[in-house]
């Protein structure tokens, strides 16, 4: 159980981030979600979290904006009193072959996915250090492990998250803070809309189906909980066996 704790989840308005917010709320954690644009979806997540009897609030903030993240983290700490768990799930894709990929395609994906994760860690770490503990869970991807044609920008950002995770884990371990990454395969969300029936994709997945956001949320809850206190710097694949 996470009673008395506060979890900050980026990308919490939908998809994997939303499933994680609901799972952690169900375990008694206060929830702060950070989202990019859709106010209605964000407020919907908040309302669903509140049904578990916990305090929940949504914060609109572009995670790639260093100054905005600093302000938002301070606001969340003020509103919630503490932050114990940081889940970096905000992410975007701009899939194109390298021949077609332009500079903004590359920069925007790396800025949101990789720099956004750094920005959140940078501004939450001092809070974790003062509290002598904290859990950081970064959502990477199997694309960052295997590479994926048409996703040079995304694969680079997700591989970068793995390096960032390991460096953070080593640096913050002496402070009692753990940092792990989750590397999902194909999970059914808006990001993968329309891929569910793609036979080529299903053929590459030994379990022959896409994953559900709730399955990723179970793993995140484990990494946030007491059972994972001796795990740090790990990258856990959740991909139906695709990248083994
Ligand atoms: P999604 O598109 O459904 O949700 C993305 C979330 O990120 C939204 O809440 C959005 O508001 C937020 N977001 C986007 N840009 C942002 C920004 N600049 N600032 C703040 N928030 C921002 O995506 P999803 O499928 O739930 O993916 C969640 C994470 O999991 C992403 O990092 C994605 O790369 C990763 N992932 C997804 C899959 C998959 O198959 N769905 C597979 C591997 C990894």
Would you give an account of this structure?
- The structure is a single chain.
- The protein has helices at 15-26, 39-50, 66-80, 103-131, 143-146, 152-172, 199-203, 213-224, and strands at 6-10, 30-35, 56-60, 85-88, 134-139, 177-184, 235-238.
- With 244 residues, the chain is an alpha/beta fold.
- It has a single domain, classed as NAD(P)-binding Rossmann-like Domain (Rossmann fold), CATH 3.40.50.720.
- Strand 1 (6-10), helix 1 (15-26) and strand 2 (30-35) form a beta-alpha-beta unit.
- Helix 1 packs across helix 8, helix 3 (66-80) packs parallel to helix 4 (103-131) and helix 4 (103-131) runs parallel beside helix 6 (152-172).
- The protein is globular, with a radius of gyration of 17 Å.
- Nicotinamide-adenine-dinucleotide is lined by residues 10-11, 13-17, 34-36, 62-64, 89-92, 112, 139, 141, 184, 186-187, 189-192.
Task: Report the mean per-residue pLDDT as an integer.
Answer: 97
- Helix amount, in percent? 40-55%
Number of strands: 7
Sequence of secondary-structure elements: EHEHEHEHEHHEHHE
Number of domains: 1
Broad CATH class: Alpha Beta
Bound ions, cofactors and other small molecules, one mention each: nicotinamide-adenine-dinucleotide
User: What's the CATH topology label?
Assistant: Rossmann fold
Sheet/helix structural class = alpha/beta
What is the annotated CATH architecture? 3-Layer(aba) Sandwich
Unreliable runs, pLDDT <50, ≥5 residues? none
Q: What count of helical segments does DSSP give?
A: 8
As a percent range, the share of strand residues is 15-25%
Order of strands in the sheet with the most strands? Answer: 3-2-1-4-5-6-7
Distance between the termini: 31 Å
Query: Given the C-alpha coordinates, what overall shape results?
Result: globular
CATH superfamily: NAD(P)-binding Rossmann-like Domain
Largest sheet: 7 strands, parallel
Task: Give me the Rg, rounded.
Answer: 17 Å
């Amino acid at each position: 159980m996470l009673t008395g704790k506060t979890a900050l989840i980026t990308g919490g308005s939908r998809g994997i981030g939303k499933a994680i917010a609901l799972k952690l709320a169900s375990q008694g954690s206060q929830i702060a979600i950070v989202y990019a644009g859709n106010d209605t979806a964000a407020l919907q997540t908040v309302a669903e979290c509140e049904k578990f009897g916990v305090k929940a609030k949504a914060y609109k903030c572009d995670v790639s904006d260093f100054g905005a993240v600093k302000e938002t983290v301070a606001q969340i700490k003020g509103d919630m009193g503490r932050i114990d768990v940081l889940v970096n799930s905000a992410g975007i894709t701009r899939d194109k072959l390298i021949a077609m990929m332009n500079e903004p395609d590359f920069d925007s994906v790396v800025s949101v996915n990789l720099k956004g994760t750094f920005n959140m860690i940078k501004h939450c770490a001092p809070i974790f250090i003062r509290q002598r503990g904290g859990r950081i869970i970064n959502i990477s991807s199997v694309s960052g492990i295997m590479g994926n044609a048409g996703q040079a920008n995304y694969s680079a950002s997700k591989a970068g998250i793995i390096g960032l995770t390991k460096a953070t884990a080593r640096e913050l371990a002496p402070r009692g803070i753990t940092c792990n990454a989750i590397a999902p395969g194909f999970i059914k969300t808006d990001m993968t809309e329309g891929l569910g029936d793609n036979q080529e994709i299903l053929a590459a997945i030994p379990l022959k189906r896409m994953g559900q956001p709730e399955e990723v949320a179970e793993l995140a809850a484990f990494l946030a909980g007491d059972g994972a206190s001796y795990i740090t710097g790990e990258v856990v694949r959740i991909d139906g066996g695709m990248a083994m």
